[in-house]
Amino acid sequence: MSRVLVVEDDQTIALGIEYSLKQEGFQAEVAYDWAAAKAVLQQEEFDLILLDVALPDGSGFDLCRMIRERTDTPVIFLTARDEEVNVVMGLDMGADDYVTKPFRVRELISRIKSVMRRYDKQPAQRTEIRLGDVVIDTAQAQVFKQGEAVLLTSLEYRLLLTLANHPGQVLSRKQILEHIWDVAGDFVNDNTLSVYIKRLREKIEDDPHHPKLIHTVRGLGYKAGVGVETR
Questions:
Q1: Same domain, 51 and 83
Q2: What residues have CB less than 8 Å from 207, skipping those under 6 apart?
Q3: Reading across the β-sheet that carries 142-145, which strands appear in turn?
Q4: CATH code at 35?
C-alpha cells in the first residue's frame, strides 16, 4: 500500500485529503508545519509527498529542497499561489506537479496516481536506449551517463524518454507536453517546459550552454541531436 505524507497547515484541507486518500486505498499521514514534516521525513519513508508552499514556520520550497537532497520521492505542491513565478520555482526545485487551491479532490487523486505511475518499475524485458554517452534503462526507469547514475525526476525522465523515442524528429512543445503531462493544468506552458529542458540539460549535457544531446529548433520545438540506439 502506497504511503503519502500530506504537509498542510489548514486542518480542514489536510483532513479532507487524508480521508480521500484512505478511501482510495492509500496510507496517509499528516504534518501541519515545517518542523513536524522534517521530523517525520527523518524517521519514515513515503511514496509521495503533498507539500503546501506557505507553512506557518517555513517555506515549502525549502522543505522540497531538503527532500531533493536526500531522495527522489515524488513531490506535488499544494498552494493558493498560482503566479507563474512560483510555479516555475517549484518545478525548478524538482517538484513533479503543482496543484493550486481551490482544487477538486478527484483531480488531486488523479494527479497523485499519474505521478506514481511514472515512478513504478514494472518487470519487463531489459531495453536500453543510448543517446550519446547517456543510457536510458527503460525496464528500471533509470538513466546513466558514462556509467554513473543520473538522478532525474519523473517529468525529466519522461521528457528525455519522449525525445529519445523520436530520434531526429522535431517535436513541438505541445507534442512534448502531451507526452510528459497526463493531466494538463493551466500552468503547463512554454515557460515550464523551458524549465524542464534547462534542468535536463544541466544533468546530462557535458556543456549545458552548448547542448549536443537535446537541440532547440527555433520556432518549432526540440529534438534529440545525437544518433540514438535501442537495444
A1: yes
A2: none
A3: 148-150, 142-145, 134-137, 128-131, 228-230
A4: 3.40.50.2300
Domain residue limits at 218: 128-230
Same-domain pairing of 13 and 55: yes
Number of domains comprising the chain = 2
> What nine digits make up the cell of 18?
487524508
Based on the domain organization, do 136 and 110 belong to the same domain?
A: no
**Residues 108 and 137 occupy one common structural domain:** no
Scan for cell 527523518, then name that residue.
Answer: 42
Four-point Cα dihedral 208, 95, 86, 50, nearest 10? -170
Q: Of 162, 173, 180, 182, which is closest to residue 222 (Cα–Cα)?
A: 173
Specify whether the backbone of 58 is left (phi greater than 0), alpha (psi in -120 to 50) or beta. Answer: left
| Residues 66 and 147 reside in one and the same domain | no
pLDDT tens, residue by residue, 155-197: 788 889 889 988 888 999 888 877 776 544 444 556 778 888 9
Q: Which secondary structure element, helix H or strand E, spans residue 134, and what is its range?
A: strand 134-137
* pLDDT tens per residue across span 136-158: 988 778 899 998 999 988 778 88
